[in-house]
């Protein structure tokens, strides 16, 4: 049996048993610890959790969005991916151009007020439709600022030039695989105020040894129930894609967490998940005809043998 999922479940247990209660930016409240590391051997199988269903399609389309350098949710919506909607929607309903019902604290209110929740869903659907159909509206309210894709592919320098960090690191892996500078940073202090959400996964580093590519991610803020399963799969997929381009096997994904927290309204869901039996990990299949990371599309990425337990729903804290 794979150790990968137990590694994640051990994190859940550690935080529940040792975490401290803290207030947070969203007003929800968390149980939190600081400093934790997980290691996943990618040769064991693809680390997509089986104790609850994780929507791999959303993970893959979000990663391709990052790789393309895109920062507008329109691409995500075109791929039926709604995971960044709330941050764009917040920008819209707090603008001077919004004249609909009061959406203040919509994330929390939708959980406790059924009537408000229905109105929120109505407004969100209208917002999504406008993003998809109105280019001018999309350019303003679909834009999330200089988030991950911008920093990975188009980092702005003080001299006005730009750096394609992702492209540069791939070329360095090919030419100088033992370099200790195989780093991509999403944390740009100058740009943080212009981001809908400052990057939670802030910096990642690659490492080549014995023909295998490993990746370590430092994540400053880690939503253990909703976010971390996505992050594990996303950066494992990125490692596979870059190893594929560079002619390497995959090694480990190492996940280092800063503030690792469980939202207080996710504890019940975590406990349900901890009671479930771990199943075999699925296998990742990449199109062998696509060699470059920058050529990969959704149809080139497949997961086989994924038979998880059912989804466990939980609210997103915005």
From TrEMBL:
Pathway this chain belongs to: Pyrimidine metabolism; dTTP biosynthesis
Binding positions (dUMP): 25, 180-181, 220-223, 231, 261-263
Family listed: Belongs to the thymidylate synthase family. Bacterial-type ThyA subfamily.
CDD domains per UniProt: TS_Pyrimidine_HMase
Subunit structure and binding partners: Homodimer.
Catalytic activity: dUMP + (6R)-5,10-methylene-5,6,7,8-tetrahydrofolate = 7,8-dihydrofolate + dTMP
GO BP annotations listed: methylation
Subcellular location: Cytoplasm
Originating species: Robertmurraya mangrovi
Broad EC category: transferase
Domain Thymidylate synthase/dCMP hydroxymethylase: 7-318
Protein name, UniProt field: Thymidylate synthase
Name of encoding gene: thyA
The keyword Transferase appears for this protein: yes
InterPro entries assigned: Thymidate_synth/dCMP_Mease (IPR045097), Thymidate_synth/dCMP_Mease_dom (IPR023451), Thymidate_synth/dCMP_Mease_sf (IPR036926), Thymidylate_synthase (IPR000398), Thymidylate_synthase_AS (IPR020940)
Active-site residues, Swiss-Prot/TrEMBL: 200 (nucleophile), 200
PROSITE patterns membership: THYMIDYLATE_SYNTHASE
